[in-house]
Design brief:
Elements lengths: L6 E6 L8 H10 L7 E4 L3 H9 L4 E6 L2
Antiparallel strand pairs: 1-2, 1-3
Length: 65
């Protein structure tokens, strides 16, 4: 990771059971499988849009400097 590069950590906090198929597909595309699983990604507009669509299922925070 380069100095000054911003990243966000996305953590799955709620179960995907009973969610709409599109929300399930979004979580899977982000790489989230089980409750508590997390991914560290660059905050591109497409990633932020995906997080916004499943914001009720995930928690995210900015990491890095």
């Amino acid at each position: 990771m380069k100095m000054g590069e911003k990243r966000i950590r996305i953590v799955l906090k709620r179960s995907l059971i009973g969610t709409k198929p599109r929300q399930l597909a979004t979580a899977r595309a982000l790489g989230l499988r089980k409750i508590g699983s997390h991914v560290d990604v660059e905050p591109t507009p497409s990633i932020l849009g995906m997080v916004r669509n499943i914001s009720h299922l995930v928690q995210f925070e900015e990491i890095g400097t």
